[in-house]
UniProtKB/TrEMBL annotation, chain A:
Name by which UniProt lists this protein: Branched-chain amino acid ABC transporter permease
The entry's keywords: Cell membrane, Membrane, Transmembrane, Transmembrane helix
GO molecular function: branched-chain amino acid transmembrane transporter activity
Membrane topology of the entry: Multi-pass membrane protein
InterPro entries: ABC_transp_permease, LivM-like
Residues annotated as transmembrane: 6-23, 30-48, 54-76, 83-106, 112-128, 160-179, 207-226, 246-271, 283-305
Main localization, broad class: membrane
GO cellular component: plasma membrane
Chain coiled-coil ranges: none
Subcellular location per the Swiss-Prot or TrEMBL entry: Cell membrane
UniProtKB/TrEMBL annotation, chain B:
PANTHER family with a match to the protein in the record: LEUCINE-SPECIFIC-BINDING PROTEIN, PERIPLASMIC BINDING PROTEIN OF ABC TRANSPORTER FOR NATURAL AMINO ACIDS
Keywords: Amino-acid transport, Signal, Transport
Name recorded for this polypeptide: Amino acid ABC transporter substrate-binding protein
Residue ranges of every copy of the Leucine-binding protein domain listed in the record: 25-366
UniProt key word Nucleus: no
Taxonomic classification: Bacteria, Pseudomonadati, Pseudomonadota, Alphaproteobacteria, Hyphomicrobiales
GO BP term, example: amino acid transport
Listed InterPro entries: BCAA_transport, Leu-bd, Leu_Ile_Val-bd, Peripla_BP_I
Stated family: Belongs to the leucine-binding protein family.
Transmembrane segments annotated in the record for this chain: none
Lineage: superkingdom: Bacteria
Gene source species: Bradyrhizobium archetypum
Cleavable signal peptide: 1-21
Automatic annotation (TrEMBL), chain C:
Membrane topology: Multi-pass membrane protein
UniProt GO BP: amino acid transport
Matching Pfam families: BPD_transp_2
Family: Belongs to the binding-protein-dependent transport system permease family. LivHM subfamily.
Transmembrane segment boundaries: 7-29, 49-75, 87-106, 139-159, 189-212, 224-250, 262-281
Origin species: Bradyrhizobium archetypum
Gene Ontology molecular function, alphabetical: transmembrane transporter activity
Compartments, as annotated in UniProt: Cell membrane
GO (cellular component) term, any one: plasma membrane
Designated name of the protein: Branched-chain amino acid ABC transporter permease
Sorted UniProt keywords: Amino-acid transport, Cell membrane, Membrane, Transmembrane, Transmembrane helix, Transport
Signal sequence extent: none
Transport recorded as keyword: yes
Length: 332, 378, 291
């Protein structure tokens, strides 16, 4: 039973990955752009999922970290530096800022990280907008080059999409490894029962802080991809509403589920697209859909699936029990 | 004989096919700020477009073909604007309309140029038309042509030696502020205070007290209509009496409506306004109000004009030819006498910038009074 | 010096607006752990309801009454029954996210069914200025300030002097115990939602003449009020009032003496400092509950 389920799961995974690689080959430029956007937003949402779903902390600054990554990429690559250097700078900066923000906030009370990050989000926007000498202010930075990866230019939409998809793959593998490592298990222990985790000798504050800092760094990674994707950035997309959107993605997909961010980002990027035929009403319908979903399943889409699967498992288990019982009873 | 009949049939078939190809609707694509921070801009622009298309289609269309437009929402976000423009271009429209935000124009104009499709947009930032893009066209004065007129007025007529600048900190406000700062430097006008404000700001007490402390000879105000009205009220309350000078957004009817008495004495340069003392513009305004139940701002005019630019250019070519569209519009003069929809005579130069009549106006007892007509240059 | 006084008065007037909106935040938080990210839009909507009634031909006074009633129905009862009740038992976060979606939906609905344009709105306080001790103050600002003070007094009296108030406080402090001693907890919670709806409708009526009726006008307001509530203390009505007034004043002083470009940063810096040194807010009491 569980062996076949495992094979099914692997088969499904291979099919999805193959579809993500093969299907876009004859997509038009727009389709590729949307898919690349999905990959980038998924990385940012995965970072937030680590903070929110595994460590149980609300961050309202993930959009600002995406902005920091994007500005690092835009400033450095327009100066002729390689994107990988920008990536390094973005990751280190976002990690450090996350640590500095989280350290005092987590000292006090549980939900204060949300308030501190709310403030930081707006402060970051003001810096992006006001420090013209560095960020070119409200005019933004244009002509951001796309990188050469292993000697391949990614100027065309399709290679760039593969670049984004590859980055998403690497980040996913790293995340998969992380949540199975002792650290990751500590994160989960933290979420399930903080008091017990504390009594087991887990330094909860340090692990929470670590989860937040790593999550923020992933925001930076997403940003370094966002800049060459749009090839132009200005401060406006990185205001508080991006942070709120990312939060919505994680919750809608299912926070604390590994694939939650993938689904959440897909819905946030693609659902407005599918609702486009309703013209002016599409954002309204999107909002209503999100509310209805959360009323029906506050744990998001994967929460519904989870509920369904565990129900089936219980049913299967009770069926097995019934069979065993009847056998026992009929036994002489 | 038979071959001649056959040739005749063939010819008929070919021309019928051609006529059929000619008969379908002309597809236009609009990408605008329909939601988010620029929703007022984008919705005015969209309504202007829809009104013009409705008029043209009611009169039998353009060269006998209907115009058809798809509106896409950029959510006031350059990243989304790029995606939507990409989508629009993948469908090969005749002409691309929008966006209105300069940042969004900057990110999308290389795509349209690459596709060889003309883009008629609403952005006013000076730099947009200075990169040598052969497919980009304005619908209004860029800041590089309106600001020098304001600076000249402040220097020549008001004889001001020092000026306080108040601007809204977005790409519209910052662009204007940067251009006029350069112009003031040319006249050796001192900038007594340089005050940035936020879009949607409600409380201007601190900003005005800064102006008061700087004691300038004049104040240059470059905000959107709503904020203009609020700062005018505050300036009156703090009894600042030096001349207040601005652009279209300081002296519009909407500002008068919102600011009341406080708007009196405000003056400025006006490029496109529904208050212009031109009969065609007044007629446009009536039509617009009748259809949408509100008075449009200059973005409504821009959208309307964009469609009539397409009409005039296409009629000049005599056919629907996306390839030659941009070339034809460069250097074209459209006269309101022959194309009433263009409202005022206009000429497009090689960069896609426009030349049109402008006005210097002052608010006197709640009415816009034209003090000076700035003629079209050529 | 005279300049400083002007700034203080103007700051208090703006701060009173924030305070009115922030009070509702704290009420909802206290009785039902609802963080309402749509609070700014809650202030935006009643003005449009009133305008819609006026467009139908009703006189202003009738529009005001109907607008307030509709607000109680939609933003009080409807909000609680349709969104908060089904989600409350699942914790704070899904509900907070749902209110974000609600905010988007409200903005879009107003834009779509009304207009993307700002509309003027009649003022119940006559426009104009008065001179007090040599300072020129606008009557509208005074009206807002007076109302904010009246609300604090009214709410304090209600909470401390009436039996309903005592029951509400008991509900806020410990619903389980309150239920045991016979407080109709559900009814008390509903009452706070109605009070919040009434307050936002009042705020809408007072500030829309200044802010104008526009679909997006709630954004700035909601965020400022949220910050005010945190600064003042999320669990105290008087904390929200103090926080609102403080943010209004600090914002004005920052614009005048620090930098207009960074004026929005100063209240946020204040927020961070307060969280570090006095996490329960200026006038709040320390919370035992963690979220």
């Amino acid at each position: 039973m569980s062996a076949t389920a495992k094979y099914w799961r692997i088969a499904l995974g291979v099919a999805v990955i193959a579809a993500l690689i093969i299907a876009p080959m004859n997509f038009n430029r727009y389709g590729l752009y949307i898919l690349s956007q999905w990959a980038v937003m998924t990385i940012a949402a995965m970072g937030l999922n680590l903070t929110l779903g595994y460590a149980g902390q609300v961050s309202l600054a993930q959009g600002a970290f995406v902005g920091i990554g994007a500005y690092a990429a835009a400033i450095m690559t327009t100066q002729g530096m390689p994107l990988i250097a920008a990536l390094g700078v973005a990751v280190v900066m976002c990690f450090a800022i996350g640590w500095i923000l989280g350290y005092p906030a987590l000292r006090v009370q549980h939900h204060y990280l949300a308030f501190v990050t709310l403030a930081f989000s707006t402060l970051a926007f003001l810096v992006f907008r006001n420090e013209d000498w560095l960020t070119k202010g409200i005019y933004g930075i244009s002509n951001i080059p796309r990188p050469n990866v292993l000697g391949f230019a990614t100027n065309r939409p399709l290679p760039f999409y593969y670049f984004c998809l590859g980055s998403l793959g690497i980040v996913s593998l790293a995340m998969w490894w992380l949540i199975r490592s002792p650290w990751g298990r500590a994160f989960v222990a933290l979420r399930e029962n903080p008091v017990r985790a504390l009594s087991l000798g887990i330094d909860t504050r340090r692990y929470t802080l670590m989860a937040f800092a790593i999550g923020s760094a992933l925001g930076g990674v997403a940003g370094t991809l966002y800049a060459p994707l749009t090839q132009y950035i200005d401060p406006v997309p990185f205001n508080l509403s991006l942070s709120l959107d990312l939060l919505m993605m994680v919750i809608v997909g299912g926070s604390g589920f590994f694939f939650g961010p993938f689904l959440g980002a897909m819905i946030a990027v693609l659902l407005p697209e599918w609702l486009r035929f309703t013209e002016g009403y599409y954002l309204m319908l999107y909002a209503v859909a999100v509310m209805l979903l959360l009323i029906y399943s506050p744990t998001g889409i994967l929460g519904i699936l989870d509920r369904y699967l565990s129900e089936r498992r219980t049913k299967a288990a009770s069926a097995l029990r019934a069979v065993a019982k009847s056998r026992l009873e009929t036994a002489p | 004989m038979r071959s001649r009949i056959f040739a005749g049939l063939l010819l008929a078939a070919v021309s019928a096919g051609a006529a059929f190809a000619q008969g379908g609707p002309i597809k236009l694509a609009d990408v605008a700020e329909l939601s988010g921070g620029g929703a007022t801009v984008g919705n005015n622009w969209k309504n202007g477009i829809d009104l013009a298309i409705e008029e043209i289609n009611a009169k039998g269309g353009l060269l006998g073909r209907k115009l058809e437009v798809t509106h896409a929402d950029s959510q006031s976000n350059p990243g989304v604007a790029r995606a939507q423009v990409q989508k629009a271009l993948d469908n090969e429209p005749y002409v691309l309309l929008g966006p209105g935000y300069s940042g969004s124009v900057k990110v999308t104009s290389p795509l349209a140029a690459e596709a060889g499709i003309a883009q008629i947009m609403g952005g006013e930032a000076a730099e947009l038309t200075q990169g040598g893009n052969k497919f980009l066209f304005r619908t209004s004065f860029g800041q590089q042509s309106s600001m020098p007129k304001v600076a000249k007025y402040i220097h020549d007529e008001l004889k001001a030696k020092s000026v306080a600048i108040v601007w809204v900190n977005n790409d519209f406000g910052k662009g204007g502020r940067d251009v006029i700062t350069k112009e003031f430097a040319k006249y050796n006008i001192k900038i007594a205070a340089d005050i940035s404000t936020e879009a949607g700001q409600a409380d201007f007490a601190a900003d005005v007290s800064k102006i008061k402390a700087a004691a300038p000879d004049a104040v240059f105000i470059y905000l959107n209509e709503e904020e203009s009205a609020r700062i005018l009220k505050e300036l009156k309350r703090q009894a600042i009496t030096v001349p207040l000078v601005g652009e279209t957004t300081l002296v519009g009817q909407k500002v008068v409506e919102l600011a009341g008495d406080a708007a009196n004495g405000a003056r400025g340069h006006v490029g496109l306004t529904t208050d212009a003392p031109v009969d065609l513009v007044k007629a446009f305004r009536e039509k617009f109000v009748k259809k949408y139940n509100y008075v449009p701002d200059h973005n409504g005019l821009k959208g309307y004009l964009a469609i009539y630019m397409i009409k005039a250019t296409t009629e000049k070519m005599g056919k629907v030819d996306a390839k030659r569209f941009a070339d034809t519009l460069h250097g074209l003069t459209i006269k309101a006498a022959s194309e009433p929809g263009i409202l005022m005579d206009v000429t497009f130069d090689e960069k896609g910038d426009i030349d049109r009549q402008g006005f210097l106006v002052e608010i006197v007892e709640g009415k816009q009074v034209v003090k000076q007509v700035l003629p079209k240059l050529n | 010096m005279s300049n400083l006084l002007d700034l203080l008065v103007a700051g208090l007037a703006t701060g009173a607006i924030y305070a009115l909106v922030a009070v509702g935040f704290t009420l909802l938080w206290q009785t039902s752990q609802t963080i309402n990210f749509a609070q700014g839009e809650f202030v935006m909507l009643p003005a449009f309801l009133m305008l819609a009634v006026m467009h139908a031909g009703a006189p202003f006074w009738l529009a005001v009454i109907l607008g307030i009633l509709l607000s109680l129905l939609l933003l009080g009862l409807g909000f609680k029954l349709l969104l908060v009740d089904p989600m409350l038992r699942h914790g704070v976060l899904p509900l907070a996210i749902a209110t974000m979606a609600l905010a988007i939906g409200m903005k879009e609905a107003v834009k779509q069914f009304f207009s993307a344009e700002a509309s003027p709105f009649p003022s119940i306080v006559p426009a104009g200025d008065v001179s007090i001790l040599g300072r020129v103050v606008s009557l509208q600002s005074l009206g807002v300030l007076a109302l904010a003070i009246a609300v604090v007094i009214g709410l304090t009296l209600l909470l401390n002097r009436t039996s309903i108030g005592h029951q509400m406080q008991a509900t806020a402090q410990n619903p389980t115990v309150a239920r045991i001693i016979g407080v109709p907890v559900e009814r008390m919670i509903l009452l706070t939602f109605l009070i919040n709806a009434f307050l936002v409708a009042l705020a809408s009526l007072l500030i829309t003449p200044i802010y104008l009726a526009k679909f997006s006008s709630g954004e700035v307001l909601g965020q400022a009020a949220f910050i005010a509530a945190i600064v003042g203390g999320f669990n105290q009505v008087r904390g929200a009032i103090a926080g609102g007034l403080l943010i209004g004043v600090v914002d004005n002083l920052a614009a005048a003496y620090v930098s207009t470009q960074y004026r929005a940063a100063v209240p946020l810096a204040l927020l961070i400092i307060i969280i570090l040194f006095r996490p329960q807010g200026l006038l709040g009491r320390p919370e035992e509950r963690t979220v």
